[in-house]
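ingest -> validate -> predict -> emit
validate: passed (alphabet ok, no gaps, 158 aa)
predict: started
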Amino acid sequence: MLLVVLLVVGFFFYTRYSTIAEVPIEEGVPITITIFEPSAGFELASGVPIFVQAEATGPDQFVALEIWADDTIVGVQSAPSSTGVTALSSQITWMPPTPGIHNLRARAFGLDGSSAESDVVWFFVRNEYIDGEEFSPESEPDIAAVLAPVGGGASGRC
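emit:
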């Protein structure tokens, strides 16, 4: 029964949230903030680190790209030049702290101080054994709160 619930929740997140956000600008060329890895609906065992890869591209100059996990910043990539670049990527390895539903988001900052975000990528960490001991979180995630509509997409123009 739990497996069926997890499959339904995973399918919901996979179909509801994409990993690409495009922000149109005056010239008609979109700014794109993309999380390439992991894909939406990804599932892994607890105690296993996850590889995250994100990229910001567009006609404007980016000076930084942040990776956020569960509303906490877990990685920052600065542009190699103080004048920014039109394509900026970041790769990190992150360890989800608990089993349950988690999310990732990338945020890019433009030379002018503006920012744009990727859509949220939701994934699931299974409750399994870590170093021979069963992991037991103090509370289960609130599935109803997670399933509530979440504002996504871009927050501004870079």
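Residues 2-16 form the longest helix (15 residues).
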